[in-house]
Amino acid sequence: MRTELDPAGLDPTAVYRLLTSTVVPRPIAWVSTVSADGVDNLAPHSFFTVSSVRPPIVQFTSVGRKDSLRNVEATGQFVVNFAPESLFEEINKTATDFPHQVSEFDAVGLGREPSARVAAPRVAGSPVALECELHSTLLLGDSTVVFGRVVHIAIDDAVLDQGHPEVTRLRPLTRLGKDEWGTLGEVRDLRRIRYADWSASN
């Protein structure tokens, strides 16, 4: 037995809760920006993924018009900082609706470091930073999808294994439904099966 639901007949909040509880786990874009007035902003966005590799483009979604979106529109730049398990509480605190003139870096007590190619700072304690220049935005209902071309990548050597980021060293934090967060858990290796090898594998 299933519960059958028509999103058109539901309150938008109910749809949001259903989608964010079933599209899980979601990686977190911990987006740092700087306003036209020079105020640094930092906020987590859990509608986030890779859009393209050639060219390298990532995307995050601003639900409503938040400071991250306004700053990206004003400056054309942002940084996606990796959200590690070790900074769980700090990441959550940067989701607070601080006034526009307040920097989350200062309010939460997070260290900055300068970026190589963009004006927005990186989170010093984050193991990976993707520095981005705005490619385009797409308005969808009450949300805006922000596409950023990755122009520089900075990775902490401590999370590399033979030059490749190693997930058990990265310890990614993810978002689930309600107020739930996810940590890495069990990691399994399984290669994709080529069609040429299909009959031999079954």
Major pleated sheet: 7 strands, antiparallel
Mean pLDDT over the residues: 96
Q: In percent terms, what proportion of residues is strand?
A: 25-35%
Structural class: alpha+beta
Number of strands: 14
Q: Which residues form runs of ≥5 with pLDDT under 50?
A: none
Radius of gyration over all CA atoms, rounded: 19 Å
For the termini, the CA-CA separation is 32 Å
Family: Belongs to the flavoredoxin family.
Pfam family, one: Flavin_Reduct
InterPro entries: Flavin_Rdtase-like_dom (IPR002563), Split_barrel_FMN-bd (IPR012349)
Domain Flavin reductase like: 21-175
What does this structure look like?
This is Flavin reductase (DIM6/NTAB) family NADH-FMN oxidoreductase RutF. Keywords: Flavoprotein, FMN. By secondary structure, the protein is of the alpha+beta class. 19% of the residues lie in helices and 34% in strands. The chain has 6 helices and 14 strands. It has a 7-stranded antiparallel β-sheet with strand order 3-2-6-9-10-5-4, covered by helices on one side. The chain has a 3-stranded antiparallel β-sheet with strand order 1-13-14, with no helix packed on it. It is globular and about 60 Å long. The model has no long low-confidence stretch (mean pLDDT 96).
